[in-house]
């Protein structure tokens, strides 16, 4: 560590959330603990995968809503 730099963090870290490791596949792990629970609360190791699925779902709905007026 360079001279004059303190080892204290400016923003203290929070304790890690409870984490349940799943032996199921990606889809099985997401369905097992609930889609929104896994995507938003990150209850198992498939949280990032569920968040990407949620991103695609929201983007698809948004795209459809933006394209509807151009069809009429």
What would you note in describing this structure?
- By secondary structure, the chain is mostly helical.
- It is built from 3 helices and no strands.
- It has helices at residues 26-33, 35-41, 47-71.
- Helix 2 (35-41) packs across helix 3 (47-71).
- The radius of gyration is 20 Å and the shape is flat.
Q: How many separate helices?
A: 3
The percentage helix is 55-70%
Tell me the fraction of residues in β-strands, as a range.
under 5%
- Unreliable runs: none
Cα Rg: 20 Å
Give the overall shape.
Answer: flat
Number of DSSP strand runs: 0
End-to-end distance = 64 Å
Structural class label: mainly alpha
Query: Mind describing the biggest β-sheet?
Result: none
Q: Helix and strand string, N-terminal first?
A: HHH
- Whole-number average pLDDT? 86
Write the topology of this structure.
Blueprint: H1 26-33, H2 35-41, H3 47-71
Short description:
Helix content is 56%, strand content 0%. With 72 residues, the chain is mainly alpha-helical. It has a domain at 26-71.
Quick tags:
56% helix, single chain, mainly alpha, flat, 72 residues
